[in-house]
Design a protein that fits this description.
Elements: H1 7-17, H2 24-39, H3 49-71, H4 79-96, H5 115-118, H6 121-124, H7 126-145, H8 154-177, E1 184-190, H9 204-211, E2 229-236, E3 244-251, E4 257-262, H10 270-274, E5 284-287, E6 290-294, H11 303-311, E7 316-322, H12 330-342, E8 345-351, E9 354-358, E10 364-369, E11 377-383, H13 390-394, H14 397-420
Parallel strand pairs: 6-7, 7-8
Antiparallel strand pairs: 1-11, 2-3, 3-4, 5-6, 8-9, 9-10
Helix pairs in contact: 1-3, 1-7, 2-3, 3-4, 4-7, 4-14, 7-8
């Protein structure tokens, strides 16, 4: 059962509800901060005291749903009490996503392997999975507190089971009845081999002609084979700040430039000082094989930003990344969520990580592990058409419904407290 990965929150809910006074909460904060710090160790662009502060800050956001469940949940019983934790969990994750690291740390990413469950991304987005995992933990604690007497926890379990069955029926039906049926196109992701094994460096003549601005021959352009080539480039402007331009240049089949796109979301650390972000508009153009779009690396960690791809009806997104071993393969798996959310097919090129090609339902058509592939070439056939999703049209409607629902519970609790006073 995919939601079984909700066991850790389950035990934490039971722990924070037990005991008297404030003793469980500081211990829970320490445990959550340590777990987060251990999981993401060496993934963040800083270490030492700064990393401890970073882990503690996330520990606060992780603790808030348990704090709400312990004190706000005392007002209710049954189904209402079981909803406090998942509503607070979604609210906390959503508000925390406005930090410079985006959606890193969301528990929903743990469900990468469960394709049927991932289809809910096309309706509710990332936070639909977060809600289900939180609700599973909450209703299981209710059964635990009822000493596993099912009739005493019948209401909340019936509601959860009904919702869970609906999710599985939707996901299974979408996969079985509405798979991609369009024509396919051959795509490839190529990572340059190590310099010591690079057999065919550019000739001196070609280098000189490029530097002098002379035209290339037909054999040296995409025009020769009628293909589109995406070139991730690092362009240095020595003596200026910012000094580096991180861009993706797309060469069309006629040999012209379809677009030049710079990364929009810049991660904290060194890149902030040397890179300037783009205007924030994802490029999407019509081609003979569908609407082709692009994003770069860290852009994919921000679902709200990637909504542009869904609303511009992108059929295929090309995304280059240059990673490091500590986030392999987590970051690549996170990108797959954006494809299902927005209904586009995805070619993700990840140097020093896991490259993948997947369709808009999350089926993986090809993988290339930078550290195990000798040629570092990924070739796959991807559908040429994407789909429009409910999520791409409604955006962050679901987390806002959860925030409003949690706010109403909090207001009711406050009003009830004042009335008793």
């Amino acid at each position: 059962m995919p939601c079984a990965r909700g066991w850790p929150p389950l035990f934490m809910i039971h722990f924070t509800r037990s005991g008297r006074g404030l003793v469980p909460l500081p211990l829970a904060f320490c445990g959550l901060s340590f777990a987060f710090g251990y999981q993401f160790y060496r993934m963040a662009p800083f270490e030492g005291v700064a990393y401890l502060m970073f882990s503690a800050a996330f520990g606060v956001t992780l603790l808030l749903p348990y704090l709400a469940d312990r004190y706000l949940g005392l007002r209710w019983q049954g189904l209402s009490r079981s909803l406090v934790f998942p509503l607070a969990l979604v609210a906390s994750e959503y508000l925390a996503s406005f930090n410079p690291f985006g959606t890193w740390g969301s528990i929903a990413y743990s469900q990468y392997e469960h394709l049927t469950l991932l289809q809910v991304l096309s309706v509710r987005g990332l936070y639909g999975i977060t809600f289900l995992m939180g609700w599973f933990a909450s209703v299981t604690v209710a059964l635990w507190e009822a000493r596993f007497a099912i009739p005493r926890a019948r209401g909340e379990w019936a509601a959860f089971a009904l919702c869970w069955c609906a999710v599985l029926l939707y996901g299974g039906g979408r996969l079985a009845l509405f798979p991609p049926r369009s024509a396919t196109i051959r795509v490839a992701s190529i990572t340059r081999p190590d310099e010591s094994r690079f057999p065919y460096p550019p000739s001196a003549n070609l280098n000189n002609r490029v530097m002098m601005g002379e035209p290339l021959t037909e054999a040296e352009t995409a025009q020769r084979r009628g293909i589109y080539i995406g070139l991730p480039l690092a362009v240095f402007d020595i003596g200026h700040r910012p000094s580096l331009d991180d861009k993706l240049v797309m060469i069309d089949a006629a040999g012209g430039v379809a677009w030049e796109y710079r990364k929009s979301e810049i991660p904290p650390g060194l890149e902030v000082t040397i890179l300037s972000p783009s205007s924030g508009q994802l490029p999407v153009v019509a081609t003979p094989f569908g609407r082709l779009g692009a994003a770069v690396a860290f852009d994919m960690d921000f679902p709200n930003f990637l909504l542009q791809a869904g609303r511009k009806h992108a059929d295929l997104m090309v995304v280059p990344e240059n990673e490091y071993p500590e986030i392999d393969p987590m970051h690549s798996r996170m990108a797959l969520y954006r494809a299902v959310e927005n209904g586009f097919n995805l070619l993700l090129h990840a140097s020093q990580s896991l490259s993948l090609a997947c369709d808009y339902q999350g089926r993986v058509y090809g993988l290339m592990d930078h550290y195990h592939a000798s040629d570092r070439v990924l070739v796959a056939q991807l559908p040429t058409s994407g789909v429009s999703t409910i999520y791409s049209r409604s955006g962050y409607l679901f987390p806002w419904i959860c925030i409003v629902g949690f706010g109403l519970l909090l207001l009711t609790r406050l009003l009830h407290g004042n009335a008793r006073a």
